[in-house]
Amino acid sequence: MKSKLFSFLVLSMLAAGVQAKIWRVNNTTSLSADFSDLQAAIDSASAGDTIYVEGSATSYTDDDGYFDITKQLTITGPGFYLTLTDSTLYNKMSAMIESHLNIYPAAKHTLVQGLHMRERHIYVGADSVTIQRCLGESCAIALGHYFLFVAKSSTYTETTLPIVNPVVKQNKVRTIGFDHTIINGIVSNNIIYDHLNGSANSTMLISFNTIQSMYGVNNSVIQNNIIYLVNSGSDCVWSNNKIGDEITAHVIGGDNNETYYKLDSESSAVGAATDGTDLGAFGGTDPYVLSGLPAIPHVWNVESPVTATASKGLAVKIQVKTQK
Question: Is 140 helix (H, G, I), strand (E, B) or coil?
Fold first, then answer.
C-alpha cells in the first residue's frame, strides 16, 4: 500500500503543469510501473517526455552496455546518498545506472538529473545538454563524443564532434572531460574528486567548483574555484580562485561523502567569492545540492497505520517538500 501510494504521489507531482508525458521506470519485480527496462522507456517516449527512474535495490543495466538517448528527454532519478541526509526521500534507494549513458546529436536540450552512475560514463554528443545533480562513482562526464551503434556489425564506434552550450553542474563526479571542441560550455558547482581535463579548442566557463586537479584547459574563464593541482593550457582568464592548497585544508572532512566537502568555518575560502558567497561547489547563486535531489517536490515521510477502521478509514500522514 505504501509503495503504491508513494509512486502515485511522485507521478502526480511530476505531472503538475507539464504537458508532455511522464513515464515511470522501476525494475523492482513487486512494483508496477510503465517500464521495468530503461532503454525500452527511452525508445517508447516521444521527444519532450520525462522519464522518472525510480530508486531500486537492483541496478539498471542494458545488455550491450549503453543506454542510447536519441531524442530530447528529461531523465530524472531520485538523487543519491539518501540515507546520509535528513529529510530526503521516503524511499532511500537511488537509481543506480551500471551501463553508459550515450547521448546522440539528435537529443539536443536533453536534461539528465538525480542519477547514480556507477563505474560507467555519460557521453554527451548533442548541443545544449544539461547534466546536473548526478553522482559519478568512478565515472566520467565526457563532452564532445558519443558511441555510434553500427547495426551491421552490432558494435559501437566512438564518434567525436563539436558541441555547443553544454551545462554540467552540481554533480559529484570523478572526472569531467572535454577533449574535443566545446563552445560556450559551463562547468559549475561540481565536486570533482579526481580531475577536470580540457582541450585546445574549447571555450568554457569554469566556476564555483571544488577540483582535485585540472589540466589541458584553454581559452576559458576560470573563477571562484578551489583547485589543488593545476597544469592548464593557455589563453585562460583566471579570477579569484584558491589554488595549491590541499582540499582538506578548507573542508569539514569526516565520514560523510558529501558534507566532507563543505567549507570549514575557519577556511579562507568562506565568503571569498566575487559575489560574497563561498569559493567552491557550495558557493554562488546555484550551489551544490546535498543528495542531488532534483528540483521537484518530493515525499520525504509517510506515516500509515497497519489497519483501518470503519469510522475513520486509513489515516495516512504524508509530508512533502519542495526542492530548489
Answer: strand
Residue extents of the structural domains in the chain: 13-161, 166-293
Cell 575560502, residue located: 269
Rounded CA-CA distance 4/310 in Å is 22
Q: Which long-range contacts (CB under 8 A, 24 or more apart) does 256-264 make?
A: 256/84, 257/81, 257/84, 257/172, 258/81, 258/84, 258/85, 258/172, 258/191, 258/290, 258/291, 259/84, 259/290, 261/191, 261/210, 261/288
Within 30-171, strands assigned E span 50-53, 66-69, 74-76, 96-97, 100-103, 111-113, 116-118, 122-124, 130-132, 135-143, 145-150, 155-160, 163-164, 167-169
Cα separation, 71 vs 200, whole angstroms: 29
Residue pLDDT, tens place only, 230-264: 987 789 999 999 999 999 999 999 877 888 999 99
Residue 254's CB is within 10 A of a number of other CB atoms, namely 9
pLDDT at 319: 72
Looking at residue 298, its pLDDT comes to 66
Q: Is 9 helix (H, G, I), strand (E, B) or coil?
A: helix
Cβ distance 180 to 199 under 8 Å?
A: yes
Backbone angles phi, psi at 244, to 5 degrees: 100, -15
